[in-house]
Amino acid sequence: MHLNIAWQEVDTVLLDMDGTLLDLAFDNYFWQTLVPETYGARLGISPQEAQLAIRQEYHAVQHTLNWYCLDYWSERLGLDICAMTTREGPRAVLRDDTVPFLDALKACGKKRILLTNAHPHNLAVKLEHTGLASHLDLLLSTHTFGYPKEDQRLWQAVASETGLNADKTLFIDDSEPILDAAARFGIRYCLGVTNPDSGLAEKTYQRHPGLNDYRRLIPALR
């Protein structure tokens, strides 16, 4: 599916964080490896049992705000997830194409808004280690609104908070259900990231165009 953006008609670019501006390798390691290992060690169960238990816990709250909530997981698993996040912070890295793209957007007057489901503590740790904030105009965590991006109420709240015009907005994310939610709200351009984790094979999108390098968008911007 090809994405033709009429850039002269776009005034706002909404961007996810993990897997979109940052390499998702950090989160995949944290949630798929470190959390199960730490949980298994705490309970004295085998790695396989720990993985299965954690997978079931994740599945139970997928696409809800709790899925993204460090406080929820700390309480649910009996682990200090915030402290673990702080400790692992240096693993957070920007994608290579992030800064060139964000700077190009700034140069042609587009508003750059981060819209992340990441918990505020998670967001703060990643900003500290990546310097991402200096390349954005506004940073929003869905936790402050009380709904995740999968929920239409979040989009209504963000639109009223920022005054964005859905018909003049491009949204970039690495989750198809979230892109679906944005499109349902009326966001004109929805783009999926095909390589959110630098260590994994590229993914495909069924209902949205995909891209693996933002630098390919820059010539059209100019």
From TrEMBL:
Q: Which domain of life is it from?
A: Bacteria
- Signal peptide positions are none
Q: Which organism is it from?
A: [Enterobacter] lignolyticus
Q: Name one GO biological process term.
A: DNA repair
Do you know which Pfam families this protein is assigned to? Hydrolase (PF00702)
- PANTHER family xref list: GMP_IMP NUCLEOTIDASE YRFG (PTHR43434:SF3), PHOSPHOGLYCOLATE PHOSPHATASE (PTHR43434)
Entry keyword annotation includes Metal-binding: yes
The cross-references to InterPro entries, in alphabetical order and at most eight, read:
HAD-like_hydrolase_sf, HAD-like_sf, HAD-SF_hydro_IA, HAD_sf
Under the GO molecular function aspect, what terms does this record hold?
metal ion binding; phosphoglycolate phosphatase activity
For this UniProt record, the keywords arranged alphabetically read as follows: Metal-binding
Protein's name in the database:
GMP/IMP nucleotidase
Q: Which GO terms describe its cellular component?
A: cytosol
